[in-house]
Every structure is written in C-alpha cells, then in structure tokens.
Amino acid sequence: MNNPKIVITKQDGIDQLVDPVGEGVLYLEPTGIHQINEVSDFITHKDDKVKYHIHDHGYELFVMTKGSVEAILGGKRCVANVGDMMLIKPYTPHAFRYREDGTVWQELIQQLSLFENERSIARILINCPDKLDDPEFMRLYQSRDGRIDYPEIPVMDTDLVNPAELPGFMCKEDYYKQFCIPGITCTLKYPRWELDGIKEIWEFAAEEGVSVNWGNQYHDSELFVVRKGSVKVEVQGFEPLTAYAEDIIHIPNYTTHRITSLESGTVLHDFNCRHNLFLLMEELSINKRENPGILNGDYFKDLLRRFDCPITEISYPAGGFSFSI
Ligand SMILES: [Fe+2]
C-alpha cells in the first residue's frame, strides 16, 4: 500500500503542465465514483482569457489565492479577488480574463477530471499546435468531455455588477449560514444542494489550542486547506505534522486523526464534508436556544450519530465546554 502524503505543500505537486492559457500544478488526482477531491493550482498572466463556455457535467470550484480576475458567470461580470470563490455548476456559462501577472486560483473539481483535459490540450500544444486554430478539431476536443465554447458572444463587454448577482460567486466574507460553537466559528460556504448532494464546503475559524478528534475510523477521506495560521495534524500511523497557510491536509479514510489549532484565528477550508453538518448545526443551534437543558453528553452522542458526523471529541486548553463520546 502506498504511503499517502498527509500535509501537501506548494512543493509537492505531482504533475505540472503548460496549456494555451496558463500553467497547472496538480496536487491530488480525482478519486471515487464521483471523481471528487481533484486539487490543482492554475497560474496565469495578465490579459490571458478563457473563452465563454459551458460543461454538461461536473462542478468547478475556483478559490482565488493570488491576483485578480474578471469573471463572467451566467452572463454577469464582476472582479474576483483573493479569498473569493466561484462554484461553476453544469450548464453555467463562464469566461475569464486575468488581470495581473501571476494570478493564481486553486481548482477543486467534482464529477469531472479537469486536469486530464488540461493534459490533453497541453499535448495538442506540443504535438500539433496548428490544430488550436482549427475550429472543427477543437470542437471535437471539447465535446469529448462535455464542453461547448461560445467564443462569438462578446461577454467581456457586459457591465460590472455586484458579485452577489453572479450564480455560484461567493465573496471572501460572504457565506450561506454561520454557526458558532465554543472556540470555533463554523461558516457554511456552499450547502449540499449546490454540489449535487455529494458534500458541503465549510470554513472553520478556531481559537488557539482548540482540538478536534475523529476518534473512529470513518468511511471518507478529509480534505482541508489551511488559509490562515497553523495546525498540528496527528493521524493514525503517521508522525505528527504541522500544516501552515496554503498547505493542503489530505487524510485517508479509515484513519483516526486529530487537528489542533496552534494560533488564534486559524482558518481552515473543508472541501470534503460528506456528512450532514449543516443539519446537525441547525438542530444544535435551535436546541441551544429553545431547549438548553438537553445539551448533555448523551444528546451530543446521539446528535453526531444521527447526522453521521465522525467527530468524537472537541477539547479546549482552558477547560470550558468540552464533549467526548
Ligand atoms: Fe470551465
């Protein structure tokens, strides 16, 4: 059995390519029947463009990590800056113009192998670059994975609008719903119904010393990216590791693990929340308000079980609220 990397840094790319628009660095290949958890960086130059196009399947999530880009989603245009996210669902027409040299976004892909498509076009660029100008050849290249281009529509000239008007656009500070538990602010960026029912995407901001334990072996892998601060990562069968800002944390399934915030204000994005954390948080917040007397160890144990939550303990350096099952 191969020994997977748990903390993946910017030096740990497993494939790299140049396509006609930019450069890609792959960190994780897609896995499973839903082809989830593909992660790569895409690096571009000022005024590079992606033509207006759709996909008939698959979900592209782009997280801006450097620079800025003009984005057209569903025919509406705005500027995306560092920290903004764009979730592009099937049949959402989209186009981009990069505004700065070295603009980078992170690509998280579901039900689509985007990097495999980029490998194909990188191969065309090397082996038959003249074909890039052959409309019939390129139409067949795109159609083999359900992409249709509409380059004749001059979307780049549409008026700039409020980003909230663009389908799937999520500004850095925006969210669908936010829940606070002691020591951790839990922010739902994209609910399950935006991702074909497969997962939820969360942002967690934790105080120093807060420690979350997944004490049972669980059916799904974990995929976090540290956006701010640092965490200690303890995984069954591995030496303890530290992950810093922009490191990816990839924890294999059926492996107990614990993540501890090492700094106040540490922020993690959770890109593979497969269990029903949103419904769990909703019930917990309602009971905190309406029925606080029932919030004991047995209640938490039952709550976690009913929503398939693999977490077994949250602990705090200075005592206070804590539970363990
Ligand atoms: Fe696309």
What does this structure look like?
With 325 residues, this protein is mainly beta. It has 2 domains: 7-170, Jelly Rolls (Sandwich), CATH 2.60.120.10; 177-324, Jelly Rolls, CATH 2.60.120. It has helices at residues 114-127, 135-143, 277-290, 297-306, and strands at residues 7-8, 15-18, 22-28, 38-44, 49-55, 59-66, 69-73, 76-80, 85-88, 94-98, 103-110, 147-149, 169-170, 177-181, 184-190, 200-206, 211-214, 222-228, 230-235, 241-244, 248-251, 257-261, 266-273, 313-315, 323-324. The strands form 4 sheets. A 7-stranded antiparallel β-sheet has the order 1-21-18-23-16-15-14, covered by helices on one side. A 7-stranded antiparallel β-sheet has the order 2-3-4-11-6-9-13, covered by helices on one side. β2 (15-18) and β3 form a beta hairpin. The longest helix has 14 residues, at 114-127. It is globular, with a radius of gyration of 21 Å. The model has no long low-confidence stretch (mean pLDDT 94). Fe (ii) ion (FE2) binds at residues 53, 55, 60, 88, 94.
